[in-house]
Amino acid sequence: MAEVLSDADVDDQLSEAWSRDGDEIVRVYEFDDYLDGVAFAADIGEVAEEEFHHPEITIRYKKVEVRLTSHEEGGITEKDLRLADLFDAEL
Ligand SMILES: C[C@H](O)[C@H](O)[C@H]1CNC2=NC(N)=NC(=O)C2=N1
């Protein structure tokens, strides 16, 4: 089981485009049109399934909000930080 990271560790390691919100990390991606956001959500869903670590994805008009936390561990772990980087690589 992965270690829950301290707030300081998360703030230190989290990429600039993401932010910490309590026990979650969050990023809102913006797109030129709605279906680009839908396609992106499908892409990152594939990545999540490959990693077997799953985000909360909210699809809005031209925006996709992604939230990550490690439910079993009860906080933010390396798994969440890794997935954030993998998701950003799908852009
Ligand atoms: C049984 C448990 O749900 C699974 O091991 C996986 C599935 N995907 C998961 N995703 C996330 N974000 N956190 C988990 O703890 C998690 N656990």
Tell me what the structure shows.
By secondary structure, the protein is an alpha+beta fold. It is 40% helix and 23% strand. It has a single domain, classed as 2-Layer Sandwich (Gyrase A, domain 2), CATH 3.30.1360.20. It contains three helices and four strands. A four-stranded antiparallel beta sheet has the order 1-2-4-3. The site of ligand H2B has 7 residues, from loops. Pfam families: Pterin_4a. This is 4a-hydroxytetrahydrobiopterin dehydratase. It catalyses: (4aS,6R)-4a-hydroxy-L-erythro-5,6,7,8-tetrahydrobiopterin = (6R)-L-erythro-6,7-dihydrobiopterin + H2O.
Question: Secondary-structure blueprint of this entry?
Answer:
Layout: H1 7-13, E1 19-21, E2 24-30, H2 34-51, E3 56-60, E4 63-68, H3 78-88
Antiparallel strand pairs: 1-2, 2-4, 3-4
Residues 52-54, 69-72 line the site of the ligand C[C@H](O)[C@H](O)[C@H]1CNC2=NC(N)=NC(=O)C2=N1.
What's this entry about, in short?
This protein is an alpha+beta fold and 91 residues long.
